[in-house]
Sequence to fold (144 residues):
Amino acid sequence: MRTCLAACACVTMLALSGCASSGMIEARETDSAHRVTPVTMRWASRGDAVDGSMWATLADGEQFRGKFVQVTRTRLVSGWPWWNDWPAPEAVTVYSGNVAATLFGDRGEVMRCRFELASPSDGLSAGGLGHCQVRGGPRVDAVL
Fold:
């Protein structure tokens, strides 16, 4: 009985959360002296492959947090106009695979990130490549 209640609770939580997903980003920063150090980065999304939150901690300890968004557009797909039994037009989301993020640091710095996704309709969880830049600071290269 307890197992059944726990399973039901888990299913309910997943349904309410919209199938949330999250992951780590393998990242490293390169400073002006070409020293490379690891950066801790992670992301979380409600599962729609379009937007979510991102966090990063640089080697000097500055912590960043902000939002990411995948550029999308909506296209109207319609059937053949001369066939009466063809389905009505519907809107289809077209995923670009280009993700932009702006993260704000706890010391006042701003980090801008750009990623290119391996499988745009699957979001960040499918992987990709990108980089971030802190204004006047290090460049961060990242692998999703």
Residues 76 and 91 are 5 Å apart (CA to CA). The chain has a mean pLDDT of 85. The chain has one domain: 20-143. Residues 20-143 form a domain with the Lipocalin fold (CATH 2.40.128).
